[in-house]
Amino acid sequence: MPLKFFISAFLFCSIFFTVSAQQKTWSNKVDSVLHLMTLEEKIGQLNQYTDDLTLTGPATVDNDKASQIKNGQVGSLLNSLGTTRVRSWQTMAMQSRLKIPLLFGQDVIHGYKTTFPIPLAEAASWDMDAIELSARIAATEASASGINWTFAPMVDIARDPRWGRVMEGAGEDTYLGSLIAKARVTGFQGKKLGGLDAVMACVKHFAAYGAAVGGRDYNSVDMSERQLWEVYLPPFKAALDAGAATFMNSFNDVNGIPATGNAYLQRTILKGKWNFTGFVVSDWGSIGEMVNHGYVKNDYEAALSAIRAGSDMDMESRSYKNNLAKLVKDNKIPVSLIDDAVKRILLKKFELGLFDDPFRFCNTTREQQALNNAAHVKAARAIAAKSIVLLKNENHLLPLSKSTKTIAFIGPLVKPLLQNKGFWDVTIPGVDSNFIVSQWKGLQNKVGASSTLLYAKGCDIEGDNKAGFAEAIAIAKQADVVILSIGEKRDMSGEAKSRSNINIPGVQEDLLKELLATGKPVVVLINAGRPLVFNYTADHAPAILYTWWLGSEAGNAIADVLFGDVNPSAKLPMTFPLSVGQVPIYYNHFNTGRPATNDNNHIYNSSYTDLSIFPKYAFGYGLSYTDFKYSDLKISKNKMTAKDQIDVAVTITNTGKYDGEEVVQLYLHNKVASVVRPIKELKDFQKIQIATGASKTIHFQINAQKLSFYNQQLAWVTEPGDFELMIGSSSADIRLKTEFELVK
Ligand code: NOJ
Fold this sequence. Notes:
It contains 23 helices and 26 strands. A 6-stranded mixed beta sheet has the order 11-16-15-14-12-13, sandwiched between helices. A 5-stranded parallel beta sheet has the order 4-3-2-1-10. The radius of gyration is 27 Å and the shape is globular. The protein starts with 11 loop residues before the first helix and ends with a strand. The protein binds 1-deoxynojirimycin. 1-deoxynojirimycin binds near residues 56, 151 and 204.
């Protein structure tokens, strides 16, 4: 009988009748447990510690974690990896008076042991099924390894590539970001919470963390209500609508109020207007950090502010543990405030099935079967290939022929294993690294003995040492084609990895210059967790693949694309600046009263006198080995009411030599409105596969939802007026246009 796991002998009978009655709702079950809890036990449920195994924040010390767990003073742990470790902590929780199981959280950001491309790379696939599958597999592996809660997806819109965490999100666009938020939540949580292979999603960071001033991590956010509602909140809402079980608040302040103590965000919007019934966890130490913000005097006030504002669980600051009881005693907060938070957490523990079996995620056999399982690895390879963006391909240099005689593979990222994983992974070096396919190995796997492969490192990622250039040049001269793999280090982007200089580091572009001087064709692979600036490469290399960080199967996926077994189809989810001086830069900006339209005229217009206004690569940009022609744009009518729909039809023809996939993008521009509207906004897209020579006609529907916006009073409205409709292959490559009118 499962109940015996959490009910002491003394309380067994009363709880039994309450909880075992199958027909009772979760909420009744939660109430019956709550009823038995002391104030200290309740506060324990709100307390989350990190395991000492790995740290994902500033170190904290707790010598008596075990005894606190046995005393019912801890509700959750993060960073406990593997069934053995999880089981041992859970066993301690089962020694507590009420035997309330622990939640085990982990940053399962892009795969667990089978690592997928970093989220920004996956976003470049514009493939919702692939993204959902990646999250599904991550959940399958993590849940088999004891984890029941992932701190993902990060749905922060990001317009500043200096911010290292752009790697963890879906880029700059609200519409694309919202679809991806939904796909990821659905993937993580599976059919429903309670499934053995489902983990709770945690949507983060609520809110506006992506708008940190200057792209500096943890920095302040100064944001208008318009921008908050229009740009930054919709992906959170989409994740919530997809059933996200939990939210994480954020380190930053929003307009002077730390998000963690922000009742407007957490109570008015999230738990009020949006009716969120799950719970909110703080970010690591963010409750206590409100003292540093200068928002509260001490930890006591921090706890008061956070609990009032709707932060339910305290990750690692110990403010709740040390102060909530006193706050109740001092009559600063009613117990009902704590009860509400506890109930939200208990509800999730029930939904996960932990009260029925606290060890249900601790089956070692299942763990062995799930981790790095062949089907997962296969999917990781396919998704990685879908995430690679072809930026340039002069004279159809790519794809390479598999019978190329001699290939020189050069660069500091050719042979490393772990680099391919990017930031956020749960790799145990030496154990899990055996499952990573290096770029070198991927090339070997692809061409086998049919080509001679030559290798030279050439240089390091950072530093100015050019001693390796000579060897690299020598092998380049012997080769028919050179592939150069350069970029950032994997931990140059990620949390606390903001950079003011986002050029390709070190002497890597100097190496490219020397290799190009040999006269050999050079294909450049750029590995990075963010949009980098690489104008020399962009202007001189004949072919460029932006490979981001692709995960365990990086080598195989890169080889698949290099040799045309996969035709690249990814599109940039963020604008790539020409210079860091343009940042923040994003495609869906306003027109301004003095728009600049070209780089030759700086007279009293919105431009730079010393820099182009155009990015290097636009949002939505990405090439294919084949070409697509857009034709026959037709709309079913040119006037509609808010109750109508317009059908948009457009024909795409594959005019090139390869079968391929194209992301057909639909942008709208509301020409005149009561508040100014962006010059274009992505409102729909379709990713379609077309065989060489074939055509496909695809349809989009324009409805009121796509035409609505927040008016001056921040009411969601449609206003009659003229709209421009654009169909493009990127935000800057609009192929067809038409107009229609929204009438009363
Ligand atoms: C801090 C990060 O901001 C957050 O995203 C992460 O989930 C936690 N640390 C836990 O590692």
